[in-house]
Specification:
By secondary structure, the chain is of the alpha/beta class. It has helices at 23-33, 61-74, 88-99, 125-132, 143-150, 157-168, 212-225, 230-246; strands at residues 9-17, 37-49, 52-58, 79-82, 105-107, 138-139, 174-178, 187-191, 196-200. It has a nine-stranded mixed β-sheet with strand order 3-2-1-4-5-6-7-8-9, sandwiched between helices.
């Protein structure tokens, strides 16, 4: 029997969402939907459902480092995506591991959940700025995270440009400023400080959008692992997430998830 071709391998370093809509669970579903082999380094366990985060427990630094080395040293990776890294110690450990891995890195600087729950200690912000963002091929902050990182409060597209300059100042090669929370059609700005790509999409009247940030970052990582350049990877990821939002479905009593498998249904 012939040995199947090995798919591209993508690693997520993030927290678990017990409700299955965001975090590691969203990342692995997104990776399956993109035809890559998803692998995971768990940084935290959350008790989480459609109403919010009821509890979070961080894993020890040694456990995170051991998971990462196990996967990277034996299996190898073509791209890494980072999500919830709740403490300065975890941020610095992951940044150090990434510096030693020569593949594209997508950093989703997770600060606040969809429900407004804080997922990053205040003292870890500086480590994100000085250690993690410099390791990023692409950083994907939402407007709340932009305000946390740069102090820029974005109200319009001009503000998005200002925010992008602020984030690029910390060292990522590219940044996607996600403007979905602004009024009007959802627009994201992708820039490396020279090129600018404004990515627009129709707004879907669907409140079930849990997991959009994790899903977008993972989809970008998948396309980078498959050899796309950054603008193509981000454009493809935006199209995938737009479809997933349109197909988002109700779960529980609160905000339901996007549908990671929408292309398969």
């Amino acid at each position: 029997m012939p040995i199947s071709a090995v798919p591209a391998r993508v690693l997520t370093v993030a927290g678990s969402d017990s409700g299955g809509g965001a975090g590691i669970q969203a990342d692995l579903k997104t990776m399956l939907a993109h035809g890559v082999h998803g692998m995971s380094v768990l940084t935290a366990v959350t008790a989480q459902n459609s109403l919010g985060v009821q509890g979070a427990w961080e894993l020890p630094v040694e456990a995170v480092r051991a998971q990462y080395r196990s996967v990277v040293d034996d299996i190898g990776v073509q791209a890494v995506k980072t999500g919830m890294l709740s403490s300065a110690a975890l941020v610095e450990t992951v940044a150090e591991l990434l510096a030693d891995t020569d593949v594209p890195v997508v950093v989703d600087p997770v600060g606040v959940s969809k429900h407004g729950d804080p997922l990053l200690a205040a003292e870890a912000l500086d480590s994100v700025r000085t250690k993690l963002l410099p390791a990023a091929t692409v950083a994907t902050p939402n407007l709340d995270e932009v305000a946390q990182l740069t102090g820029v409060s974005v109200r319009d597209e001009t503000g998005m440009r200002r925010a992008a300059i602020g984030v690029l100042g910390f060292g990522p090669r590219w940044v996607v400023i996600k403007g979905g929370h602004l009024p009007g059609e959802p627009v994201d700005l992708l820039t490396d400080g020279t090129e600018e790509h404004w990515l627009r999409a129709p707004r879907h009247d669907n409140r079930h959008t849990h997991g959009t940030g994790c899903t977008l970052a993972s989809a970008i990582a998948c396309s980078l692992a498959l050899g796309r350049d950054v603008p193509t990877a981000v454009r493809e990821a935006k199209a995938y997430v737009t479809g997933a939002i349109a197909a988002g479905f109700p779960l529980g009593a609160g905000i339901g998830p996007v549908d990671h498998g929408w292309r398969l249904r």
